[in-house]
Amino acid sequence: MKRFHKNTLHKSLLCLTVLLLLLFSGCAADQTVDTAAMMKAYEAQIASTEDAVAYAYIDLNDDGLTELVLKTGYNEGSYRFKFYGYQRDEVVLVGDEIASYSYLAHDGLAYVIAGGHEGREWSYLVTYINTLYRCQMQYDQPIHNGKYTEWPNVVELTPVQ
């Protein structure tokens, strides 16, 4: 029974955090972006990242603009999620997080880095509002009944060729 309440509390905190960030975020992002130039710049970023493993295009902050998430590293111990935005006609690294034994998911309100290894599991809320990136721990705890929490809507990463 405790496990149910913990997960409910974590998801409630996740929802509350996202709502507060949306309510108190200042002005809207600049929507006048040359989409073709942005995608070409993202493709160049992928091609120039030596240890790029996989990527996805997501709308990290629901502003209608695409951000790039790039998984980098050479093995499970070195994997990272790198989040890129497009600001003032340039690709900008806005976040860099550990991705070992982790995946990226969208729970309907926000993106979450979730994972687990050796009997522990974790979850981090990822937000990017008005060029302000934040990655906040939701929980880091032992698994319950031998099962890891499964988040919905796992982001499918495209392997880098």
Largest sheet: 5 strands, antiparallel
Q: What is the straight-line distance between the termini?
A: 46 Å
Tally of alpha and pi helices: 2
What's the gyration radius in Å? 16 Å
Protein described:
By secondary structure, the chain is α+β, with helices and mostly antiparallel strands. Helices cover 23% and strands 40% of the residues. The protein contains two helices and nine strands; from the N terminus they run ααβββββββββ. It has helices at 2-24, 35-48; strands at residues 52-58, 67-72, 80-87, 90-98, 102-106, 111-117, 120-129, 132-142, 158-159. Strands 4-3-2-1-9 form a five-stranded antiparallel beta sheet, with helices on one face. It has a four-stranded antiparallel beta sheet with strand order 5-6-7-8, with helices on one face. The radius of gyration is 16 Å and the shape is globular. The model is unreliable at 1-5 and 22-30 (pLDDT under 50).
What are its keywords?
single chain; 161 residues; alpha+beta; five-stranded antiparallel beta sheet; 23% helix; globular; disordered N terminus
Q: Brief description of this entry?
A:
23% of the residues lie in helices and 40% in strands.
Ordered list of secondary-structure elements with their pairings:
Blueprint: H1 2-24, H2 35-48, E1 52-58, E2 67-72, E3 80-87, E4 90-98, E5 102-106, E6 111-117, E7 120-129, E8 132-142, E9 158-159
